[in-house]
Write a structure and sequence with these properties.
binds s-citryldethia Coenzyme A, globular, three-stranded antiparallel β-sheet, mainly alpha, 6 strands, 18 helices, 432 residues
Length: 432
């Protein structure tokens, strides 16, 4: 029972009403307005959820003013430095870091689920070769529920767990198959002796014709990028997964909904949009004119990879990716890469500009990740698909949390109706 109360008073003399205030372990308190309609006949109005907590969660914490991101309490910097992706996936799913035995068992189960039903591969041939990878991912991941009937009973804990393993294990395979189909190359079956990330890179870049030799610097870079993208509390795609999940839809369908939501350029699609923007700017000398267009708000130009609903400070992930980006370019002997120089010049100019300072617009996770992918020869259209691969861990953990939450109800926002009020139908012949 909450001891703190918030009192809502009205200027028209209606009696004031009290609401309980809840405190989390850290972060802003929340006012429990669930009884607002019953007590006042009013709704709250909050498009974009600017001030609304949609759930309780104990997975990820962000302090946007300080630029802090923690998974299950651990700072992202420590996780990115010291863990591999599956270790972080275990943490996000289970709440604690694994001990060596737990890690081995988890790696093993994920590895053993990495192959997809052979018939699933036929889905790809229904798509055009030039289909956007995110379109293919939405379809193929949604279709998983047609293949794995034995793990879609959402009320059975073991079933939920198996779906989680399946999704985390199969997303690299499905994502790589999407790329291979695009390229017109044969699908590569997963190799159990490889790590999660090496296996993904092998399925992307290996061919049956020659031995694929993983490059440890590149594997580490991609693994780190996956860690940085693994979860981010109630962002748009995660909220989509939760909303779909609140109806009792199966986890594969929910994750497919999340993929669709991630695709937008204001969200995960921004990594692709950053590269397009850098291409469009073309040269450092064109930056001032581009910044001017952004500030003029001509309706089209945005500084993609900048700004965030929660971070009003540097996105801590962007800092880590920037470092990783330099490591990769060094390894690939691409230090003088034009794109990185352009991105850094653009960042510097924007960070010193009053427009961006006033609005607290800083680089976000998507600003540098695309440059790493591009340096590795990954086509721009695949960038958001790799984001989806990593975020699957967060989505499935958040979905599991939702299902286990006794406060959870079907998501059903209300509205401020501004349309026509009741009127009588005029027969067609009499309409002007
Ligand atoms: C992700 O939420 C998450 O956690 C998402 C994410 C995750 O891990 O899940 O972190 C991943 O989605 C990162 C964000 C990727 N998107 C982009 O890089 C696209 C560019 N950014 C913007 O579209 C925007 O900043 C958002 C969508 C990210 C945030 O939007 P908000 O919080 O609704 O802010 P806003 O659009 O109302 O902007 C406030 C002001 C406006 O100016 P004014 O009307 O006050 O004059 O800032 C301006 C905006 O026009 N603005 C920008 C800008 N971002 C905001 N102006 C130029 N360039 C930009 N990038």
């Amino acid at each position: 029972m909450s001891e703190k109360l918030a009192t809502l008073s009205f200027s028209d003399g209606k009696p004031s009403v009290d609401f309980p205030v809840f405190s989390g372990s850290v972060g802003p308190d929340v006012i429990d307005v669930r009884a607002l309609y019953a007590k006042t006949g009013m709704f709250t109005y909050d498009p974009g959820f600017m001030s609304t907590a949609s759930c309780r969660s104990s997975i990820t914490y962000i302090d946007g003013d300080e630029g802090i991101l923690q998974y299950r309490g651990y700072p992202i910097e420590q996780l990115a430095e010291s863990c591999d992706f599956l270790e972080v996936a275990y943490l996000i799913l289970n709440g604690e870091l694994p001990n060596p035995q737990q890690k081995t068992a988890f790696d093993d189960i994920v590895t053993k689920h990495s192959m997809v039903h052979e018939q699933l591969s036929r889905f790809y041939s229904g798509f055009r070769r030039d289909a956007h990878p995110m379109a293919v991912l939405c379809g193929v991941v949604g279709a998983l529920s047609a293949f794995y009937h034995d793990s879609i009973n959402i009320h059975d804990e073991r079933s939920r767990e198996i779906s989680a393993f399946r999704l985390i294990a199969k997303l690299p395979t499905i994502t790589a198959m999407t790329y291979k189909y695009n390229m017109g190359q044969p699908f590569m079956y997963p190799k159990n002796k490889l790590s999660y990330t090496d296996n993904f890179l092998y399925m992307m870049f290996g061919t049956p014709c020659e031995e694929y030799v993983p490059n440890p610097v590149i594997s580490r870079a991609i693994d780190r990028i996956l860690i940085l993208h693994a979860d981010h509390e109630q962002n748009a795609s995660t909220s989509t997964v939760r909303l779909a999940g609140s109806t009792g839809a199966n986890p594969f369908a929910c994750i497919s909904a999340g993929i669709a939501s991630l695709w937008g350029p204001a969200h995960g699609g921004a990594n692709e949009a950053v590269l397009k923007m850098l291409d469009e700017i073309g040269d450092v000398k064109n930056i001032p004119a581009f910044i001017k267009r952004v500030k003029d708000k001509d309706g089209h130009a945005m500084l993609m990879g900048f700004g965030h609903r929660v971070y009003k400070n540097y996105d801590p992930r962007a800092k880590i990716i920037q470092r990783t980006c330099h490591e990769v370019l060094e390894e690939l002997d691409m230090k003088d890469n034009k794109l990185i120089k352009l991105a850094m010049a653009l960042e510097k100019i924007a960070l010193e500009d009053d427009y961006f300072i006033k609005r607290k617009l800083y680089p976000n996770v998507d600003f540098y990740s695309g440059i790493v992918y591009k340096a590795l020869g990954i086509p721009v259209s695949m960038f958001t698909a790799i984001f989806a691969l990593a975020r699957t861990v967060g989505w499935i953990a958040q979905w599991k949390e939702l299902i286990a939450d006794t406060d959870q109800k079907i998501g059903r926002p209300r509205q401020l109706f501004t349309g026509a009020t009741r009127r009588d139908l005029v027969p067609m012949a009499k309409r002007k």
